Amino acid sequence: MLENGYHWRNREIREHVAVIDGTVKPDFILANGTYLNTYTKQWLKGNIWILNDRIVYVGDKFPENQSVKIIDCEDSYLVPGYMEPHAHPFQLYNPVSLAKYAADFGTTTLINDNLVWNFLLDKKKAVTLLRAFNKLPVSMFWWARFDSQTALQNEEEFFNTEEVLSWLEHSSVVQGGELTAWPSLLQGDDRLLYWMQEAKRMGKPVEGHLPGASEKTLTKMKLLGVSADHESITGEEVIRRLRLGYQVGLRYSSIRPDLPKLLEEIMDAGIDTFDNMMMTTDGATPAFYEKGLMNICIEIAIEQGVPLPDAYRMASHNVAQHYGMTEHLGTIAPGRLANINILDAKENPHPVSVLAKGKWIKIDQEAQQRIVNFEWEKYNLAPLEVDWELSMSDLQFSVPIGLEMMNNVIIKPYPIETDVTLDVIPNTNNDAFLLLIDRNGKWRINTAIKGFTNNLGAMVSSYSTTGDFVCIGKSKPDMLLAWQRVKELGGGIVLAHQGEIIFELPLRLGGSMFDGDMSDLIGKEKELKNLLKEFGYPFADPIYTILFLSATHLPYIRVTQQGILDVKKREVLFPAIMR
């Protein structure tokens, strides 16, 4: 078994070699299948021997003079388990529920964002948690964040050299970034540059976050050490990054489902090599994953005319190569983890059977219960215990500048003209109260938001960028009612209207994550979206709206722990109020 997710012990390696010598039997053989050799981009006929979690032989032979379990794969096609190179495993779901669900559709490796662990857990407990994840059939790896992508009151507490380097040094951490603080880097932040160079010294790439970047900016970022970027929204931007030597992630997410357009545009431009491209769902919200993750991306690539070997490589071999993992993942070859998807046709990337670390996740379309309930409480991930009260005195609004939604996540400032001293804002306009309040009750920011709802009493959410409480609504009494229910649930998202609770989604893992199956969560998220739409939410993804209210990597104005922030000027317009 891989130790720390990455290395076999010498004794195990000797045992693997003994299989070839015929003194140890493999556990089973996938026989007579047609597999994709991602090195030569050929479909080859062969037998795949597996011992424990490792592929020990691929070729036309069978063991001599041994009775071994044979699984006949005649008329089946075998490809490497799919890899998601850029996952945010905290979008209401938790890392285990996402991994379990993804594996059922063939995505057996996820490279995950560590941002939420910085806020929810101390480093020692987080390391223990990563070790527990390595025991699961899925393969989980992580990034080391360099910044909070918001304006914290105590950024140094979470992102300092000791903390950042200790994350980078962990064997399960394979990347630095994503680099949402890149403007600071360009302005001379040498500590950030040092962290990036340490990541590169360890052989770990640095992921950028460079939406709309010019050739000049991309060149500077390459010189500073950025390895890859996933923010292209046109084929021209993809090509620009490829020509400058970036590894490029093509995005298909709930707020940026760009993959079909990107592939069409780069192929129309004559690009016919895909070795430096990957695909990512970039932390989509739950319902977007109803039919899977990377299997959907591969399907789109095939539909757009990407050659079959390249389409599969973009979600396996290319990812492994970028992260220096091809000796363990992303290919069907001796020595690799036994992560294999079995297909009924080359052109159909939706697997009928899924093997992960030598264990069956799915057999003939029937899911196997390989990931049991995870004991989160061992790692201090429990329901929120809130020992303070929200009161009407906290709902005093006088700031003259509010946040006006342009789309799901882009927000501009606007002058508040409606009377926010009232207990209920009339439904004749799109203004609503907006309160961001510290999860420990120490500070608050009171303003207004336009475009989220025209008549909802209240929505209160403990799900946010930093785990602080977001309260939006037309009615102060309904805000207090929804707040009280969130507190009783130990965290969650609650809607209240005209004195009644009309929706609740418990998020009992630190107030940020759902402790349950993805299928149940998908149903709840759909219900939430439908309700918010009925109450005037005009866009597609309210979950991202809530999450990114504090996200300073987006224009133009944000509500953060420090106060209402002008993102471009990095200037606090109205500071947080201490309670």
Task: Outline the structure in words.
It is a single chain. This protein is an alpha/beta fold and 579 residues long. The chain is 27% helix and 26% strand. The chain contains 17 helices and 29 strands. Strands 1, 2, 3, 4, 5, 14, 15, 16 and 17 form a nine-stranded mixed beta sheet that branches. Strands 18, 19, 20, 21, 22, 23, 24, 25 and 29 form a nine-stranded mixed beta sheet that branches. A five-stranded parallel beta sheet has the order 6-7-8-9-10. The longest helix is centred in the last third of the chain and has 17 residues, at 518-534. The mean pLDDT is 96.
Task: Report low-confidence residues grouped into runs of 5 or more.
Answer: none
Q: What proportion strand?
A: 25-35%
Beta strand count: 29
Mind telling me the C-alpha Rg? 25 Å
Distance between the terminal alpha carbons, to the nearest Å?
A: 52 Å
Give helix % range: 25-40%
Summed up, the helix count is: 17
- Globally, the shape reads globular
Described by strand count, sense and barrel closure, the largest sheet is: 9 strands, mixed
Structural class, by secondary structure, is: alpha/beta
Rounded mean pLDDT is: 96
